[in-house]
Specification:
Layout lengths: L1 H11 L12 H8 L17 E8 L16 H4 L6 E2 L6 E2 L4 H4 L5 E7 L6 H10 L12 H10 L11 E4 L19 E2 L21 H14 L1 H5 L4 H18 L1 H5 L7 H7 L3 H14 L4 E7 L7 H25 L6 E6 L3 E2 L15 E2 L3 E6 L8 E2 L1 E2 L6 E3 L4 H11 L34
Parallel strand pairs: 1-7, 1-8, 4-12, 5-6, 5-7
Antiparallel strand pairs: 2-3, 4-11, 8-11, 9-10, 13-14
Helix pairs in contact: 11-12, 12-13
Amino acid sequence: MQNNRRSFLKETGLGILGLPIIGSTFYQRATAASVAPAKKKPFKLGKAKSVIQIWMWGGPSHLETFDPKPGAGRDYCGDWDKPLKTNVPNIEISQSLPNLAKCADLYSIIRGMGHRNNHHEQASYLMQTGRMPGGGLVFPGVGAVISKIKGYDNNYDHPIPPYVVLTNPQGRFSESGFLGPKYKPFVTGGDPSKNPFLVSGYVVEGITDARREQRKRLQESLDTFGKAVRDDSFIEEMEVAKHNAYNLLTGDAVKIFDLGLEPEKTREEYGKNWFGQSCLMARRLVQNGIPYITINYRGWDTHKRHFEALTRTQPQWDKGLSALLRDLADKKLLDSTIVWWGGEFGRTPKIGWNSPWFGGRGHFGNCFSVVLAGGGFRGGRVVGESNATGEAVAKRLVAPQDLLGSIYAMLGIDPTGPLTNNQGFNVPLMPEPSAEGFLQELMS
């Protein structure tokens, strides 16, 4: 055990106080350690079709979600010292997640996630691209890459773009990087718990079908120039574009965003709030062939009054996420849909009780949790282990490129292959995996 600990400290670049020597030391050394081809393990490409990413913007605490530490004492777990047994033997999660405790067989927990970066922007970029910022290139996030490979490069012809963010932009990293604006996400705006769900460019308050048709006829009557030069190729292309845009507004795409078409019982099961209805919206998008959906869930940067904030928010996402997993499973969509829950990092395991924090937790990239479900990933398992206080990875370190590479592989995309682009950059899709490698424990 002592040798393992010494090896881990050496590998991650920790000093004697358990702090990183420099911000990127862990990432650089984890990548360098895997260069030797002999350490690479074979992996099998999967057949998943879509990803739903639950992005916990700001960084959720692993101790109050999927890695509780009831024996660590009040300075680490506060009064939340009664974790719940799940429907999988020997797996416990936070006492605040009773619905997720009942369906732990549908998802797996990664408790050894870590990258040792405590800055929002850098950590977000790391978790979305598998790379540290710098080096002269801005790499695309996983959503943009999938929208290219599974979308535009794969004869995608759906009226809804292949990369959708519900409902606010993620920011903190450049989603499409050097791939360009074509691969940026479509950000819906609006609130799916409201009626109607006002989706940017699709659903406009107060505009009925009759009024939209009236506007179309008025526009056509005013287009005297277009009528005068009908044989011009540019004008013809513009007419086609207008026709397609109108069909987009009046066709089935708008109906996809109409949650009123769902049974009231289903809407209640997800929760009649922003997050619950965003999860239901994500399921509808997956049903209609959208390859990548992100639910950008803000509010997890809990420096102050951490437990008070969680008391308000945990019940909503516990209900919404568990309903999403069960609904996907019931509709036979879970096998083809990867669900990825997590943020840019976790929160400091030791609680700041004094003013101005009053029970807050800071940024913590050393060790945190991520959840994977569906798309060929096995459920009901735990990968990795943190120490008794949740302050360090004790077993099976998982680096960002290991996580993302595994997601690509389950989508049938070789993470060791090239990232094709129009800029002429000769770069791999993912950096080399860490010494521990891809998540083959979960890859069926």
